[in-house]
């Protein structure tokens, strides 16, 4: 292997150590941070992620409430629960697991969460504040990507960051965060022409498109740092958006799947929940 591995599990463990200290400090002051997670329906991957969030809260001593609602829950019922959680002093963070069933308006739900408890950073106010550089909750996966780069000694200033994918959850916010750190940023997407020509210009390549193994060795220049945000379930198990075996031969540093960005998502959620409790 030419490049070195960016070990998400190891970095997540280190960051969680710091979060643990902050939880302990809050508890000394009589404050227990609290996170409420709402899951609608029975998507197996979502159920697993919610279980992982609950387990991590318990490990860190964060109060955890999980609401598992039936697939046919109405939008009004869901908004009612969010309003109740907005007014609950035990709860510092509220997260609605995505994706939601089709009959529910995702934007309406996310904008009903109190922006001060919006630990996912998906409320329009937090999205807007992030873009203009004001105080905001930073969405967990993009935040995790930036922390991984920083912990791996990768400087962003002046670098060409190419983001493949323009989702609200990952592509757009990670591009914003890289820009704030003085990178030159290109966002590529499904309609981008000559994608390999663009990805080969990257110093740092961040891929979040949800298509198994779509970034091949030929699309990556020697010495690039490659961050794979994709999690795709294929017959052989979990794979990313990057053809790991091929690309690792040319990359300077690369994240694996699993064990790369994934563990950082839940870690940064814990960070945001503790931050919300500290702000209170
Ligand atoms: N409200 C939200 N919904 C969703 C988010 C989000 O940030 N907020 N992100 C994803 C899912 N997600 C957290 O919710 C998540 C995805 C992956 C992992 C993770 O640790 N993955 C492991 C593999 C785990 C496995 O075996 O499946 C890894 O990559 O090593 C954690 C959280 C969509 N929804």
From TrEMBL:
Domain of life, per the record?
Bacteria
User: Could you tell me which PROSITE patterns the record lists for this protein?
Assistant: THF_DHG_CYH_1, THF_DHG_CYH_2
UniProt keyword terms in alphabetical order: Amino-acid biosynthesis, Histidine biosynthesis, Hydrolase, Methionine biosynthesis, Multifunctional enzyme, NADP, One-carbon metabolism, Oxidoreductase, Purine biosynthesis
A molecular function (GO) term: methylenetetrahydrofolate dehydrogenase (NADP+) activity
Every Tetrahydrofolate dehydrogenase/cyclohydrolase NAD(P)-binding domain range: 139-279
Quote the NCBIfam families the UniProt record gives: PRK10792.1, PRK14186.1
Report the protein name in the record: Bifunctional protein FolD
The species this protein was found in: Alkalicella caledoniensis
Task: Name the gene for this chain.
Answer: folD
